[in-house]
Design goal:
Layout lengths: L4 E5 L5 E9 L2 E8 L2 H16 L4 H8 L5 H6 L5 H13 L7 E3 L3 E7 L2 E6 L3 H6 L2 E4 L2 E6 L2 E4 L16 E3 L12 E3 L6 E6 L2 E10 L1 E8 L2 H17 L16 H10 L4 H11 L1
Antiparallel strand pairs: 1-2, 2-3, 4-5, 5-6, 7-8, 8-9, 10-11, 12-13, 13-14
Length: 277
């Protein structure tokens, strides 16, 4: 076998060739290939990257151009994600299987050569063990069998809308560091707005169209009003599986007092009466 290659067999009995490399006493798998020469080429490319002086910027530039002859000469077998992992190991002495490159006080997660997400270093342990996936343009993570959106880790709901429920302090949606994400509204059915210099909170519930439940002075009261409207809707026979707002800033007594005193829009209450008839 050529250096860095060993032969295995697929389930159907055909030959497959695995490639790997050892660097700083760590054994790193480079993938499986249909031919021995391909596996050996991957080994040579990994060795050249680990022993060379290509910078991250040079690597990104190579991979950002399709069929670039220089890239094809250097990296025709190693995928982009593996190159990022190897480069990070060379430069920062930490091997991470996901395409992560450590920076000063933060790290970059590369979805592609042109797509860089920035995270706080506190999230490094999580993203070394969870791969970011894309489906129909949406980014998510498989976490204990559940699909979690990236913004869900910041307390934002899956339906959250930028500039209504949250915004980015520096205007960069790829910067997911905690200091850059401003949560405007973390609750279901609640929208914040400004009126006469004050922030107010409007609650709507979707049944057959959106019904306004009311406008309230705080996000917590609005969240409770949404829960109350859902309870009333269910009592009227509406069987939709509405999510519930959890308000951890309120004690059980405070929640009950607000729930009892809150007024609900008469138009919504009258609509519910028609359903009981």
């Amino acid at each position: 076998m050529l250096p860095g290659v060993y032969q295995t067999a697929r389930k159907d009995g055909t030959a497959s060739y695995r490639s790997s490399i050892t660097y700083r006493s760590k054994h790193i798998s480079l993938g499986s290939f249909p031919a021995e020469e391909d596996a050996h080429r991957a080994y040579l490319e990994a060795d050249a990257l680990l022993s060379g002086n290509d910078s991250l910027e040079e690597l990104l530039s190579l991979f950002s151009t399709e069929n670039d002859p220089v890239r094809l000469q250097k990296f025709s077998r190693l995928p982009f994600e593996k190159c990022i992992s190897l480069l990070n190991f060379r430069d920062n002495r930490l091997y991470i299987a996901n395409p992560i490159y450590l920076r000063k006080n933060y790290f970059s997660y590369y979805l592609s050569p042109a797509e860089e997400l920035k995270f706080d270093i506190d999230d490094l342990f999580y993203y070394t063990r969870h791969k970011i996936l894309r489906r129909q343009g949406h980014l998510f993570i498989n976490d204990y069998g559940m699909q979690v959106t990236l913004l869900g880790r910041y307390g934002l709901k899956s339906h959250a809308v930028c500039h209504r429920d949250y915004e980015f302090a520096n205007g960069d949606p790829s910067d997911l560091r905690y200091s850059n994400i401003i949560v405007i509204n973390p609750f279901y059915g609640v929208t914040a707005f400004r009126k006469n210099g004050q922030t107010r909170y409007r609650v709507k519930l979707h049944i057959n169209g959106n019904y306004t439940i009311g406008t309230y002075s705080s996000a917590e009261k609005a969240a409770v009003a949404y829960n109350k409207a859902v309870d009333l809707a269910k009592k009227a026979g509406i069987s939709r599986n509405y999510p519930e707002n959890y308000i951890d800033t309120l004690s059980a007594k405070e929640y009950a007092d607000i729930y009892t005193r809150l007024k609900i829009a008469p138009k919504f209450l009258n609509y519910l009466k028609t359903l009981r008839c």
